[in-house]
Amino acid sequence: MFSRAQMIRILSLMVFLGMGSALTGCSTWFSDNFKDPDVRLVDVNVVKAKLLEQRFILRFRIDNPNDVSLPVRGLEYVVHLNDVLLADGESEVWFTVPANGHLEFDVPVRTNLWRHVRQVVKLLENPDEPIRYRLQGQVKTGLFFGRRVHMARNGEIIPGDYLPE
């Protein structure tokens, strides 16, 4: 039988080796070889649009230019349409982007545009006119020690592409 001291030593060694092997992949995150991933908003889907609550699905794509897989621990974001705050929040979904690969993921969003209803109606008066959007935020990467990768995107959407006929 193992004594209590031997059991503690074995467990401590296993924890130490496990942490050491988990951190070996992190070394590239601290070196000059690490390249920030590219994060883009690729789609916005309207799930439900009622007077006091709107639900959207924001679809993001992360491209990992590194030779090692990239663990992602979450995303903080702010999305504006023209100067109207559409949504802000945080997603705590964990996933891993493969080395030199990409991954798309969805973030459910709830918002209340009631206080901006005049501005939104004005934006939708001409459905073929583009509306500017601005996405800002940061992606939390790494397991134990990681980076916060900042992102900022500007673009345009045409509301008529999203309105049913």
Explain this structure.
This is Water Stress and Hypersensitive response domain-containing protein. One of its GO terms (biological process) is response to desiccation. It comes from Pseudomonas fulva (strain 12-X). InterPro entries: LEA_2 (IPR004864), WHy-dom (IPR013990). It is a single chain. This protein is an alpha+beta fold and 165 residues long. It has a single domain, classed as Sandwich (Immunoglobulin-like). Helices cover 20% and strands 46% of the residues. The longest helix has 21 residues.
Question: Can you describe this structure in just a few lines?
Answer:
It holds the Pfam family LEA_2. InterPro entries: LEA_2 (IPR004864), WHy-dom (IPR013990). The chain has 165 residues and is of the alpha+beta class.
| Fraction of residues in H or I helices | 10-25%
- Reading off the top of the CATH hierarchy, the class is best stated as Mainly Beta
CATH topology: Immunoglobulin-like
Q: Mean of the pLDDT scores?
A: 78
Strand content: over 45%
Helices, by number, come to 3
Q: What is the CA-based Rg, rounded?
A: 22 Å
Task: Provide the succession of SSEs.
Answer: HHEEEEEEHEE
Separation, N- and C-terminal Cα atoms:
76 Å
Overall number of domains: 1
CATH architecture: Sandwich
Number of strand segments: 8
Domain Water stress and hypersensitive response: 39-158
Protein name: Water Stress and Hypersensitive response domain-containing protein
Pfam family, one: LEA_2
